[in-house]
Amino acid sequence: MGIMESPAGNYASSWFDVQNVPTNYAFPEKDRPGELPPVCLTLPVIDLGNATDADLVNQILKASQEFGFFQVINHGVSDKLLGDTSNVFKDFFEIPVKDNSNSSGKSNWIYVSSTSFDRDGVHLWRENIKHPCNPLKDCMQQWPENPIGYRDVVSIYLSEISKLGTMILDLICKGLGLEVGYFNRLGEVELLSANSYPPCPDPSLTLGLLRHHDPSIITILYQGNVPGLQVMKDRNWITVGAMPNAFVVNIGNQLEIFSNGMLKSVEHRVVTNSSEARLSIAAFINPSPDCIVEPAQALVTELNPARYKPTSYKEFVYINRALGNHTKTLQRE
């Protein structure tokens, strides 16, 4: 497998239906993933249904400090709902023409094709849909009408994710010594982003997502049975294993700030593979746009002063978008 010149028009069937990676999908040497590392077996897997709160608190804080990531099982979201939601998104990405024109004012979602992203002339090996989720009852009325059932299935999924997020954040509150509910009153599931990563003839040349940090409080990711997420650990990329019906949870920039640096937002990216299509569904629990993000006062003392400057969430996002979403800017004191 190698690189081929970019075709002048569309591919014969789908953009990814090629024998070699087109030049406009092959990243420069310094950005290529190269030979992919083996799946990491040490990323913590936390069983939410088979431990005391005290044990869960200790496991989550340890994982958040060491990796910035962990997986959860026995989380209360049914296997059937996970299957139904996955199938809805798979059906969506198979629709030939995805029209989300906002000219009618009736849609609030964005479809991103593989050519929508362009970094120095290079495209990501993925397709994406994203849309707001809060308030859920209002937002869902403007989501895609096709495939049939999209709105009903995805809204139920997000309701369950919201419950899971509340559980995890309450456990984090207990671990940090904050009042239970501290984060839940500051943030909601504000954004959903689903990605389709088709098989790639040479994964060593391409990327599904660039290295980045999430600007969320936490992100809850479902990646099905196909790995592709990589996390930076000790200056090396590790590949997160894909456990059936598990969720990957990661600490976002805002939680690093709220915790005054006790928990870390960690850089991550997505790689492709040559044999299987991969679907991921990410739900971002974000502060409201006008929320002032700063270290929790209970965590700031004379011996442990505030490490980050207060800023509104919308200003934080604006600054990072201006710099490029692969960059993390935390305004430290």
TrEMBL record:
Top-rank taxon: Eukaryota
Q: Which UniProt keywords apply?
A: Iron, Metal-binding, Oxidoreductase
- Known SUPFAM superfamilies for this protein? Clavaminate synthase-like
Enumerate the spans annotated as Fe2OG dioxygenase domain: 188-287
Query: A Gene Ontology MF term for this entry?
Result: metal ion binding
What InterPro entries does this protein map onto? DIOX_N, IPNS-like_FE2OG_OXY, IPNS-like_sf, Oxoglu/Fe-dep_dioxygenase_dom, Plant_2OG-oxidoreductases
PANTHER family per the UniProt record, alphabetical: OXOGLUTARATE/IRON-DEPENDENT DIOXYGENASE
Q: Which family does it belong to?
A: Belongs to the iron/ascorbate-dependent oxidoreductase family.
Q: What is this protein called?
A: Hyoscyamine 6-dioxygenase-like
Naturally occurring in which organism (per UniProt): Heracleum sosnowskyi
Organism placement in taxonomy: Eukaryota, Viridiplantae, Streptophyta, Embryophyta, Tracheophyta
